[in-house]
Structures are given as structure tokens and as C-alpha cells.
Specification:
3 domains; Helicase, Ruva Protein, domain 3; two-stranded antiparallel sheet; globular; five-stranded parallel beta sheet; alpha/beta
Length: 325
Amino acid sequence: MEEVYRVTRRVARSNASVLLLGETGTGKELIATSVHRLSLRNGGPFVRVNCGALSENLLESELFGHVRGAFTGAVNNRTGRFEAAHGGTIFLDEIDSTSLELQVKLLRVLQEREFERVGDTKTNGVDTRVIAASNQNLMGLIASGSFREDLYWRLNVVPIHLPPLRQRAEDIHSLVTHFLNDYNELNDRYVTHIEPAALEAMQAYDWPGNVRELQNYVERAVVMADGDALTLTLLPENVRTGIHSGSQSNEPDLESLTSEVIKHGLDASGPDEDSLHMKIVSRVEKELIAQVMLSCSNVQTKAAARLGINRNTLHKKLKEYGLES
């Protein structure tokens, strides 16, 4: 994280595009905000766009605006986010969710500093810094043909990789203290110290939701605390038992299963190999659903959309894997 902060401070004073890479909840938006605040553009707007939250047609209109009559429902001219960010910074989160067609238009903005509103022929110039973020392996998406390599290199002038919280357990005490101060003030509470057993449990936990998950649990603890300490009993069961570390699970470890496949050979087709394959598929599917549900705050409709399945299918899977809350 010290390297992240060093690069953030150095790149902020330039106009270079920045690509933030890391798992969901690692703080990519916070770093993007810091780059803007430390930049010479800090007097201008900072505009956030979650590219994964909108359909392709809506996203194009959101980014570039549209003119009246451009499509059904376009009753007035509308200014897009790039225009709104003129003189400042635009933060494009989940850039990997954009279509190839839209990526061409983003590339033009980055290269030519110009665009057209949807349904218009007039070219508009724009001066805005672009910061993009992704929790995906973009090089893998390039290899599969779902992300443009030329756009990647335009965005990836200065990459900043944010490590997951499980790789920086030594930061947990400082982060918890920071969040305690925030939520004490917001809720008029006085939870001032951390019980050693609680800190030990938090440092041993895998944090699939990263800093965002930690922040959620600290807020909950502040609200529910009877005294002035964050105790082990205030933490959810999954943190107390270390359920994500695999130490308390009766299921075979995913790495062990994978090593078995390698040991027995991927080309084998007997019943034992088929059973092993299904175990791995089920375990990966369960872990994926659990993490997506966590990132979507357990909202099934949103999680189903992100997973690309319908809500009924997700509900069945949650029941099948014992993930119902």
C-alpha cells in the first residue's frame, strides 16, 4: 500500500490516464478520488460512472449525452458525463463491462479529445482526465476478444494495482481504528478500542469483500456495541470462525481438488475423474455466487444480473449451496 500511495502522489500531478486494478472492495474509487484531489484539476468536477450498472444503450447516452429525438424517450437534449467532467476528472469503474462498439468511442475520446452526442452529428471537444478501474484480468479479456487492446494501452499509461485485504493483515488495525472514528461520530457512539481476540479474528479472516466488507462489519459493531469495545461477539459468525479460510469447512479445499486433477490427468474420463470435476465446478460456483452476493449486498436481483442468470435460478442455487441469508 505504501507503493500505491507513492505512485498515486506522483501520477496525480500529471494528466496521464490511470488504470486501477484490484478485487472488488479494495478501494479503487478512493484512490481515484485521491488522484483527482491531488491533481491540478482539483478545482474541476470529479464525475463517477459505474459502467457495469447500465445497459450498453443507456451507458452510451450516459457518457456522451443525447439530442432530442435520438431514441424513444429522448424528449430533451441531455449533457453526458464526459461533458460534465470538462476541466476535471472522469472515473470509469468496471470498464471491462463496456461493449466493443462503445470501447471504440472511448478510444476516440482518449486519442482525439472529441465525441458526438447520441443522435447528433456535431463534434464536441472535451478536456477531461480519464481514470478507469477493473476487477478483471484485462489481458485475459483481450485474448478472448472481449476487450480492445488499443483501448487497454490508452488507459494503462500508469497502472496501479491494489492488493486484496487478505495480503495486508497488518493494515487491519489501522483501518478498523479509522472506521471506528467515522462511525462513532456518525452514530454518536464511543467504541474506542478493539478487543485482542476480535483483532486476531479479523487478521486471520480472508476478507472476500476486502476493505468494503471490513467497513460494513465495523459499522455494524459500532451500532450494536453495549460498551466501549469492539468485541469478538460483535463480529459475524463467518469472521469469528474463519469460514472463508477453509479451516472450519468440511468441504475439500479448492487447491487440493485442483492438484488432484493435475495429478490424475486432465484427459482421464473415468467415473472418479468425472466426480472430481463436478466437485471442483460446484465449489467454484458456490464461491463465485457467495462473493457476488456479498458485493451486491445480498440483493438477489442485482446479483442475478451480474451473474448473467435469472433470479429463480439464483434462488435455487442459494438454496442448494446453503447460502440463503
